[in-house]
Amino acid sequence: MSFPVNPRLDRLHPYPFERLRELTAGITPNPDLAPISLGIGEPRHAAPALIAEAINSSMKSLAGYPATAGTPALREAIAGWIARRYGLTLDPATQVLPVNGSREALFAIAQTVIDSSRPSATVVCPNPFYQIYEGAALLAGAEVAYANSDPTRNFAVDWRQIDEATWARTQLLYVCSPGNPSGAVMPLSEWQALFELSDRHGFVIASDECYSEIYFRDEAPLGGLEAAAKLGRHDFRNLIAFTSLSKRSNVPGLRSGFVAGDAALLKKFLLYRTYHGSAMSPIVQAASIAAWGDEAHVVENRARYRHKFAEVTPLLADVLDVALPDAGFYLWAAVPGGNDVRFAQALLAQYNLAVLPGSLLAREANGCNPGAGRIRLALVADEAECLEAARRIVSFTKSLP
Q1: SS3 24
Q2: Which of 8, 10, 377, 393 is least surrounded by CB atoms within 10 angstroms?
Q3: Which residues of 124-156 are buried (b: 16+ CB within 10 A; e: fewer)?
Q4: Residue of 241, 242, 232, 163 lying closest to 192 (CA atoms)
Q5: Short-list 169, 197, 175, 168, CA closest to 125
Q6: Are strands 204-208 and 170-176 parallel, antiparallel or unpaired?
Q7: What is the dihedral of CA 194, 200, 203, 208, to 10 degrees?
């Protein structure tokens, strides 16, 4: 018996990890080596003890239904972190909203702001990109326009590839800074250009900032709200920033983050989320308050990544075209021969090491796939395992003809 299904589901592409499983299904990895995966960006450093303590002490809170807007205490904790991190004063009641991880919120914002009844409704996103951007756009009834990264500019996105006619149809722009997979951070001049385009065409900017607290320079990455304030846009019009505890505090399983920015947009977003059933568990809220209120564990976590990258990057740079990123926990490396899929397949077979081919993170656009010929390496395990992975990559690469 047939049954009705949303036809937009047929437009979705397989997730990169599903495609990788298909591409490696017939491969038997070297059994003499323990398996290592640098494929998935899942933080594996230990979560701070203060989060477990907050969870254990808040079990009684499960007796009541949580509000979608979260508790005033949580919104105030988030606003307090924003003030300390960016020097901004936001109204916790109207400009901050907790979410169940940035992933679900990045998806939901498209369902909130896209008007698919308008001709050729368009969402613009970087390329390569986080798969959620594309899926959210397609399920909201929009078309997707891709702006490729520029290898001559540290793989920053070249927004100039989007023509004026496309910008005129655009209703939502996804930006990711620090970027996934390159780690590139957008400068103030780039934000200014995007704000001017938003003012001219009226589209919303969704700023994905989940990697903002893992960085390698002396100066912390510029955030979207911070950029807006520097440019005199204190109402944050048509701008929402998305941030998560997953990377900052090593708790991807907690599913906790927030959105902040334009109060009028957040009012509509809250309405959508109230019907969608997106209230955060009271236990997660208690744990989140503890996490946003503490910076010591974040500083320690960042130091671990800095030391790890300082050890691993020079090893790989001897055999691959790779450099220390601005931020994030990925290395974005070019492979010899330019075939990223074949490189990943052979590396898995010979050295039992999984990496993610860059072409699976991108789409063919403007005459090329900007992820082709590169691999993404997630240095999320402990230093010893990442160093062992680097040594395997060096040995494998040196063995290539």
Answers
A1: coil
A2: 10
A3: bbbbbbbbbbbbbbbbbbbbbbbbbbbbeebbb
A4: 232
A5: 175
A6: parallel
A7: 10
Domain that includes residue 313, residue range: 7-46+297-399
Tell me if 126 sits within 8 A of 175, measured CB to CB: yes
Token duo for residue 65: 């239904």
Given 276, 294, 312, the domain boundary residue is 294
Helix axis angle, 263-276 to 102-113, nearest 10°: 100
Amino acid at 283: I
* 8 Å CB contact between 280 and 66: yes
- Phi, psi values for residue 193, rounded to 5°: -65, -40
Cα gap 212→302, rounded to integer Å: 11
* 8 A C-beta contact, residue 169 and residue 121: yes
pLDDT in tens for each of the 401 residues of the chain?
577 889 999 999 999 999 999 999 999 999 999 999 999 999 999 999 999 999 999 888 888 889 999 999 999 999 999 999 999 999 999 999 999 999 999 999 999 999 999 989 999 999 999 999 999 999 999 999 999 999 988 899 999 999 999 999 999 999 999 999 999 999 999 999 999 999 999 999 999 999 999 999 999 999 999 999 999 999 999 999 999 999 999 999 999 999 999 999 999 999 999 999 899 999 999 999 999 999 999 999 999 999 999 999 999 999 999 999 999 999 999 999 999 999 999 999 999 999 999 999 999 999 999 999 999 999 999 999 999 999 999 999 999 98
Paired with 150 in beta bridges are 156
Provide φ and ψ at 229, rounded to 5°: -65, -40
Same domain, 354 and 222: no
Q: How many CB atoms lie within 10 A of CB 20?
A: 22
Instruction: Find tokens 């798969």 and name the residue.
Output: 131
If one counts the domains in the chain, the total is 2
- Spatial contact of 261 and 236, defined as CB atoms under 8 Å apart: yes
Gap between the Cα atoms of 285 and 256, Å rounded: 8
| Domain co-membership, 135 together with 256 | yes
